[in-house]
Amino acid sequence: MWHPKFLLSKHTVSSCISNLSHLPEPNVVLISQDKPDHCHEPTLRQLDPTSSLTNVLAVPAAAKKIRGMKHFQPDRVHALPIYSSKDHDSIIRFYIPPLSPGGASGEATVAYIPAKMDVSGLHNALGITYRPPTAAPLPSRYSPQSESLTYPNFSTPNPHRHPINMLPTPPDSPPRRPRSLSSSTNPSTVSTASSSSIPLSQTSSITTAPSSVFPVNHSPHASPYRPSTSYGHSHTPSTSSTASTSHRPRPAKTLSLLYSPHGLSYSPHLIPYATHHLVPHAALPLTALIHGFDRVENPWYMGGNVNAGIPGGIEIAKNLMARHWIGAHDEDKENSGLSVMKIRLKKYGLHEVRECVRREFGGRGDCEVRVLECGEEMCMKA
Question: Cβ distance 249 to 137 under 8 Å?
């Protein structure tokens, strides 16, 4: 289907960097599709194949393609499991150590949500959440020990089994039952992993296991941790515990991001992820939606919809209360091939998108819509 005679695309804007080696060594590289504009072999070959830090997480078809390149070490390329609210092993987690003893550990998660019955394999989303670690709170001289606040319990360990050939992963908070899915009716209750660290000098491989956890080096001042993971079930948030402000770290706000360059319908695909992951982890409103503006259609016999564009993006932004919507995959390219002859393109300008968002959000300016130029950066807060 993706033979050059069928479709060949070329960029019209040069990259802001000439080589990936000019960037800091990444902990994780996410690949959302196996198509050459998402999984580009010459670009991937710019990454250091001997790195003991970088892991490549890719959708299954892309993971197979990348392994076939024989560029990376086999234990550094991992296929993303398909997210299911009923499958405890379908979310990958990164464990981030506390900033100081007594602080709360942080956590980042990645979920792969593909469209059902999508012959083209274009429509999916990568859901990412990040809760930063915290330092231990300072005791208050004005707060008597009898006064207490209620926070989620981040620190009570609960050992669980480890997979073969895996380094230990941080233990969970006490689960209600073995291999239970992370859920909570209280949006302020945040689940976490907290326990042992894994030094940078050690090596590991990824295999199926009951907890998906990557220790990550959070900052230059943090302890030297390196990624190590296992795929597995979400952590069950512990019940709230009462502790004085001098003993219990305050949980940090969780950031959330949804990356869907070609679009994915909110119903039915994203509802389970929002209900069973974003809500229990207090990750709403969505911090950022990265989704295209332009709508691209092919005839049904050539795969049908290519980019969902504004109609699909508006649905997601409204339901997840997105605070930012950043355009993606709308670059003007030089396209050639048989498929271009039948393609139908509806382009939307930034002003049009903002007007659509304003109408859908009832005139409120709750969602900021942006288009980032090549190399442009944007800072967002929770």
Answer: yes
